[in-house]
Amino acid sequence: MGVDAHVTCPLCAGRETFVFLHRPRVPVHQNLLHETGEAARAAVRGELEMRACPGCGFVFNGAFDSGLLEYGERYENSQNASPVFSTSVDT
User: Fold this and answer.
1) Would you tell me how many other CB atoms lie within 10 Å of the CB of residue 25?
2) Contacts (Cβ under 8 Å, ≥6 apart) of 61
3) pTM higher than the cut 0.70
């Protein structure tokens, strides 16, 4: 893991980003509901390649693939059961 001049920073276009964490087969969604354990184990997986830019400090997934995303009826990201999200905050 080191500096890779081929992956530029999407924030500042810096050319010296570096990998600090790599996981080859991680589930793409954490909030996609599956009807069976077998379906969950067969969930779409992608690569996680966490990179940092020493120029601006931005951290990003250099292997992000939007083509793997599925935001449909099975996607559930509700915060209704969270006491923190249920409490209104006066500003």
Assistant:
1) 8
2) 48, 49, 50, 51
3) yes
